[in-house]
Amino acid sequence: MAPPAADIMDESMMRAALGLAGRGPAVDPNPRVGCVLVVGETVVGQGWHAGAGTPHAEVAALSQARDLARGATAYVTLEPCAHTGRTGPCAQALIDAGVARVVFAQADPNPAARGGADLLAAHGVRVEAGLLARSAAALNRAWTFAVTHDRPMVTWKLATTLDGYAAAADGSSRWVTGAQARADVHRLRSRVGAVLVGTGTVLADDPSLTVRDAAGHATGTQPLRVVLGDRAIPATARALDGQAETLITPGHDPRDALKALQDRQIRHVLLEGGPTVAAAFLQHGYVDEIVAYVAPKLLGGGLPTLASLGIGSIADALECELTEVEQLGQDVRLRLTPTGRNQ
């Protein structure tokens, strides 16, 4: 039996709203949200959130629709907010515009903003929740994590030889992987709010920690550079070159660094530190995703990718779930999720 025409219409409009949401900035304190307003089968307004301080998706769509919004159905990728921040509550804006029905995908996980569905229903608006909720949540994976865990999501990025080394015995590590893998790292950096390393990495490798193009030039919006540790770094370090903002967090405790970043509304951190910093984050249960670039090389010794975790038996090994495998030139990118962690 074919699905009802209304179901097909609802899904089509929600997919359109998801497409609009994807136009918003991937790196922002706020989630990416899209909204489509429909009367009958006619789209009368559409909008998306273009970043912190700009109108929310619902308000943008209502501004386009004007009086045509009365009696409309609003398809929104995230439950309309019920709080006043830089902008007013979207649920109230929909009520004031006379919208008759609201279909939203993901329920708002933010305790400071949720409640829009109840407010809408209390004013006689028909509310339906959950349509394409997984797709909407995937669009805002890091934001959803950050607002529910009260800390940024952490992705550990590592480049390693087949036998688990990040550098040779003489300290040389440029380049473990090939050009395609290195370009992929820059795409990864462009999608996070901060890149974090330890002072040891700054002193040994002098990395720029910026998003760069194929010619090596900094390009686009740069993530915050974060240096963790209590060793002094020279004023001439590339991490202090002014191409991006740099935050130095004295001490070794990942909790302090993540607290400072959460206070700055950073939602996603790329951990690029050496073996000691990586081990510290793993031991605290603060690695939520691993992106490993594995090169077809063997060293037989050198700097390991990870310092000791204090694990003495294979039975106590930190298990990971493999979620993606992709070949990049001669290298392989693995995407994994640590399991059995203490959140």
In CATH's first tier, which class of the largest domain applies? Alpha Beta
Uncertain ranges: none
CATH topology of the largest domain: Dihydrofolate Reductase, subunit A
What structural category do the secondary elements indicate?
Answer: alpha/beta
C-alpha termini separation: 45 Å
Description:
The chain has ten helices and 15 strands. It starts with a helix and ends in a 5-residue tail after the last strand. The protein has two domains: 5-145, Cytidine Deaminase, domain 2, CATH 3.40.140.10; 152-338, Dihydrofolate Reductase, subunit A. It has helices at residues 5-21, 57-65, 90-97, 116-122, 133-139, 141-149, 179-189, 199-205, 254-263, 275-283; strands at 34-39, 42-48, 73-78, 101-106, 126-129, 153-161, 165-167, 194-198, 224-228, 246-249, 268-271, 289-295, 303-304, 320-328, 331-338. With 343 residues, the chain is of the alpha/beta class. Helices cover 27% and strands 25% of the residues. The strands form three sheets. The chain has an eight-stranded mixed beta sheet, sandwiched between helices. The protein has a five-stranded mixed beta sheet with strand order 2-1-3-4-5, with helices on both faces. Strands 7-13 form a two-stranded antiparallel sheet. Strand 3 (73-78), helix 3 and strand 4 (101-106) form a beta-alpha-beta unit. The chain is elongated.
Topology:
Layout: H1 5-21, E1 34-39, E2 42-48, H2 57-65, E3 73-78, H3 90-97, E4 101-106, H4 116-122, E5 126-129, H5 133-139, H6 141-149, E6 153-161, E7 165-167, H7 179-189, E8 194-198, H8 199-205, E9 224-228, E10 246-249, H9 254-263, E11 268-271, H10 275-283, E12 289-295, E13 303-304, E14 320-328, E15 331-338
Parallel strand pairs: 3-4, 4-5, 6-11, 6-12, 8-9, 8-11, 9-10
Antiparallel strand pairs: 1-2, 1-3, 7-13, 12-15, 14-15
